[in-house]
Design goal:
Elements: H1 62-68, E1 71-88, E2 94-106, E3 116-127, E4 157-171, E5 174-182, H2 204-207, E6 218-229, E7 232-240, E8 258-270, E9 273-285, E10 315-328, E11 347-357, E12 364-375, E13 385-395, E14 409-422, E15 425-434, E16 442-454
Antiparallel strand pairs: 1-2, 1-16, 2-3, 3-4, 4-5, 5-6, 6-7, 7-8, 8-9, 9-10, 10-11, 11-12, 12-13, 13-14, 14-15, 15-16
């Protein structure tokens, strides 16, 4: 079997605008055994230090040779300094970082099995963050969430296997995927609000759907991928509700019930300008929301998070998001790559999302985010990124611990500017205003600096 005529297209597996796994295909063209045919395109590792996409380059040509044989490997390191400069619970500076190791084995390009791809991701985290230093209930530093250990949240981790997946495309339009899946992965499928907290916005509410804090970061699952056209991707997954970033999941596979996820992502042009929309429906079944392993419930043993679980066993979430360029300097043709953490085109646009969840089981029954962003606002710096966004969360009062005086809604805002020192080295400055929802904690202003290296 061959996969022919497919343009480079991300396989968007998302959870309520949660990040998904990026899987692309390129035109096969010619014989299926040809070395150029594969699921993944061969990256361009060449160039000098100031222009190449990876800091360590092409390894004397060996890296391109390996990629042509179906083996790709890279390391993405982001470091941060967080400080609450006004309000909050503490003004201590928090320093930490995340290292993500990506290995992709394109079995089609290797000549082993047409349409097959194995993806492995490992992660390490060190230091601390300011996630717990404000009076809000949602994370202000998304990059610091993984690899996640909810029993000892803000501690470092040596290494965790967050993904080991197998994708099999049976045709250019249909495939299956299974394995241990990293549900954070590259970030939300959004030109102006993606990047997993590493390149664009830091705050969870501006990266992902807030109610999706109930979703495990890494778990076992399987599903189908449907590609009706180059602009439309549909996925349907069945997942375990068990959080198993640091385990193999099998010992307690049934403890937290299951999750069914159906998503669709569509790209279009409006008056000649690229845009896109994403929608998802998540259904939880046979769960125990009083003990589910997530950031939402069970973060602090003494209950100071301000939320409580539900005795219900079923729950649901619906999320819709969009992005739309309003000004574009670059020519463009075909779908954009939404999971690379930056706008593909020099220009700017707007984004937004709305999520609604079951108020009897999810503390965040309604979540709204909006803003604008882009690349190249300064003509002499075409690769710099920028963005300004805000969010609003409505809490379900039945799941709020009222004796803590938690309000039933809260909002916040963030602005960032990301400097492209080189394509492989970026520094960003972020500022967030986070009104407090906890008594005796003042509204917080948090500033952060991030330094990212792609090796």
């Amino acid at each position: 079997m061959t996969i022919r005529g497919m343009q480079i297209l991300p396989l968007l597996i998302t959870l309520a605008a949660l990040p998904g796994m990026s899987v692309a295909a390129e035109p096969g063209g010619g014989d299926a055994s040809a070395q150029s045919a594969g699921i993944l395109p061969v990256p361009d590792y060449q160039g000098d230090l100031w222009n190449r996409s990876h800091l360590t380059g092409d390894w004397g040509g060996w890296r391109t040779t390996l990629a042509e044989k179906g083996i790709q490997f890279d390391v993405d390191n982001v470091n941060w300094v967080d400080s609450v400069v006004g309000g909050g619970s503490t003004d201590d500076a928090e320093i930490g970082g995340n290292i993500t190791y990506n290995l992709k084995l394109d079995l089609m390009r290797a000549g082993i099995l047409p349409g097959a791809l194995i993806q492995v991701r490992g992660e390490s985290r060190y230091g601390s963050s300011a996630i717990l230093n404000t009076g809000q209930l949602t994370p202000n530093n998304s990059a610091a969430l993984s690899p996640t250990n909810y029993s000892k949240f803000d501690a470092g981790h040596d290494i965790a296997l967050s993904q080991l997946s197998y994708l099999q495309m049976f045709s250019p339009h249909f495939g299956v995927i299974l394995g241990k899946l990293d549900l954070y992965a590259e970030g939300a499928p959004n030109e102006f609000a993606g990047g997993r907290g590493r390149t664009q916005f830091m705050n969870w509410n501006l990266n992902f759907s807030t109610p999706a804090l109930f979703v495990p970061a890494s778990t076992l699952g399987a599903g189908v991928v449907i590609l009706p056209s180059e602009n439309l991707t549909i996925t349907s997954l069945l997942l375990s509700g068990t959080q198993c970033t640091h385990t193999d999941c099998f010992d307690d596979l049934d403890d937290k019930g299951g999750i069914s996820v159906t998503t669709a992502s569509y790209q279009y042009e409006l008056f000649g300008l690229p845009g896109g929309t994403n929608g998802s429906f998540i259904y939880f079944f046979d769960g125990d929301f009083a003990t589910i392993g997530s950031f939402a419930i069970g973060l602090d043993a003494d209950g100071t998070l301000g939320l409580q679980g539900s005795t219900e066993s079923d729950s649901w979430q619906v999320s819709v998001s969009f992005w739309q360029y309003l000004c574009v300097e670059d020519p463009h043709d075909g779908p954009l790559h939404l999971l690379n953490g930056r706008p593909d085109l020099e220009g700017w646009g707007v984004f937004g999302s709305v999520s609604v969840a079951d108020k009897d089981t999810n503390p965040w029954r309604t979540s709204v985010a909006f803003g604008f962003g882009g690349r190249g606002v300064i003509p002499s710096r075409p690769n710099d990124l920028f963005g300004i966004g805000g969010f609003y969360n409505e809490l379900a009062s039945s799941l709020t611990v009222t004796n803590f005086g938690i309000e039933e809604d809260y909002a916040g805002a963030e602005a960032f500017y990301n400097f492209a020192i080189t394509p492989a080295v970026r520094f960003s400055a972020n500022v967030q205003y986070l009104p407090s929802v906890r008594p005796r904690i003042n509204d917080a202003t948090m500033v952060s600096g991030r330094l990212q290296f792609v090796f």
